[in-house]
């Protein structure tokens, strides 16, 4: 299955900025695919394989949910199987997605982040785009509206990959997803016109190395859209939580916006533009039928002024900058 999706990428990448690197990316991805060994994968694969067939839909980009509209009304039996198989891919973190009459009400209302991102969106038409840590591809599918040449997402979480391909079965967006980590990407490709890194920086032990790596993937004069958790403070302020942050493991650096801007400048980015700074609300991130575990409300103090660990509550910045 993953090999088939890799072949689709290799075909789609022809004529894009990535064309000269297809062989090296194919060999890296094949190596990763060969080593995939995750207990639940067969369960997710089987749900994907049992998704009901439908005449291809099209994406309606006007809706907040990533919405697939079918040419004709689908029968109730179709939706019964569809919902059952999609629910087998619980938890749905990012979305919402609407496939015909089936609404996948995900934990995150990612449309809210998307409305902040588009305030600083560079030109995407005919461009080669990379989204690092793209989750289930919600944002990449939104970007398809702008008709880029290539939309590639890399995402190590296999369930997110399978969720993406499940929606893509109906959406036919043409987005490519590979089950790679940023560490798998060769340094110095210099070939993506726009690189997105959203919600990944704070998971990296070495945030400056992460940003340098991203820069090396971007073509001359290309752009980076960086979205990450920040704290209030000046250019000397950075939170490195001792344990968890809002119950998340593996959280390393939460810089102030001033410190993060300083990192970007020092690494050599230009035109550094703070597009948005927003507190994450319990309206944006919450438990739903499609994500039944605890969510932000349970990770904050009762008055929502602190995380349960006593840290400032989640605040996120969107920065755009140019190589
Ligand atoms: N080393 C890594 N390389 C690549 N991806 C990684 C790595 N480590 C973790 N991830 C992936 O990065 C994503 C972080 S979520 C953001 C999703 C989306 N971008 C969003 O903006 O909603 C965090 C959030 O919810 O904000 C997950 O899908 C991880 O598997």
From TrEMBL:
A Pfam family assignment: Methyltransf_9
CDD domains named among the record's database cross-references: AdoMet_MTases (cd02440)
Gene Ontology molecular function terms on file: methyltransferase activity; transferase activity, transferring alkyl or aryl (other than methyl) groups
Principal EC category: transferase
Record-listed carboxy-S-adenosyl-L-methionine binding positions: 94, 108, 113, 133, 198, 202, 316
InterPro entries given in the database record: CmoB (IPR010017), Mo5U34_MeTrfas-like (IPR027555), SAM-dependent_MTases_sf (IPR029063)
Keywords: Methyltransferase, Transferase, tRNA processing
Biological process terms in GO annotation: methylation; tRNA wobble uridine modification
Reactions catalysed, as given in the entry: carboxy-S-adenosyl-L-methionine + 5-hydroxyuridine(34) in tRNA = 5-carboxymethoxyuridine(34) in tRNA + S-adenosyl-L-homocysteine + H(+)
Record EC number: 2.5.1.-
Assembly with partners or alone: Homotetramer.
Protein role: Catalyzes carboxymethyl transfer from carboxy-S-adenosyl-L-methionine (Cx-SAM) to 5-hydroxyuridine (ho5U) to form 5-carboxymethoxyuridine (cmo5U) at position 34 in tRNAs.
Listed NCBIfam families: PRK15068.1, tRNA 5-methoxyuridine(34)/uridine 5-oxyacetic acid(34) synthase CmoB
Family: Belongs to the class I-like SAM-binding methyltransferase superfamily. CmoB family.
Protein name according to UniProt: tRNA U34 carboxymethyltransferase
Provenance organism: Marinicella litoralis
């Amino acid at each position: 299955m993953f090999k088939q999706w890799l072949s689709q990428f290799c075909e789609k990448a022809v004529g894009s900025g990535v064309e000269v690197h297809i062989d090296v990316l194919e060999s890296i991805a094949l190596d990763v695919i060969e080593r995939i060994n995750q207990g639940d994968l067969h369960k997710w694969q089987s749900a994907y394989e049992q998704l009901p067939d439908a005449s291809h839909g099209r994406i309606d980009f006007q809706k907040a949910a990533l919405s697939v509209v079918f040419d004709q009304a689908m029968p109730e039996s179709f939706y019964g199987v569809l919902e059952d198989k999609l629910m087998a891919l619980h938890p749905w973190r990012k979305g919402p997605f609407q496939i015909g009459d089936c609404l996948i009400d995900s934990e995150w209302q990612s449309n809210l982040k998307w409305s902040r991102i588009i305030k600083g969106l560079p030109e995407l038409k005919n461009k080669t785009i990379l989204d690092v840590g793209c989750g289930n591809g919600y944002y990449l599918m939104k970007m398809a509206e702008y008709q880029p040449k290539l939309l590639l997402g890399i995402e190590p979480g296999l369930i997110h990959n399978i969720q993406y391909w499940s929606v893509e079965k109906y959406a036919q967006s043409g987005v490519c997803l590979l089950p790679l980590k940023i560490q798998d990407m060769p340094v110095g490709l210099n070939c993506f016109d726009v690189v997105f890194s959203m919600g990944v920086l704070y998971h990296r032990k070495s945030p400056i190395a992460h940003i340098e790596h991203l820069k090396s993937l971007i073509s001359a004069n290309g752009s980076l859209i960086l979205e990450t958790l920040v704290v209030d403070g000046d250019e000397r302020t950075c939170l490195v939580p001792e344990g968890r942050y809002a119950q998340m493991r593996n959280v390393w650096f939460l810089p102030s916006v001033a410190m993060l801007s300083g990192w970007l400048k020092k690494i050599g980015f230009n035109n550094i533009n703070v597009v948005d700074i927003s507190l994450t609300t319990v309206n944006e991130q919450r438990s739903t039928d499609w994500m039944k575990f605890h969510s932000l409300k349970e990770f904050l103090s009762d008055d929502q002024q602190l995380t349960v660990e006593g840290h400032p509550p989640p605040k996120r910045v969107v920065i755009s900058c140019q190589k």
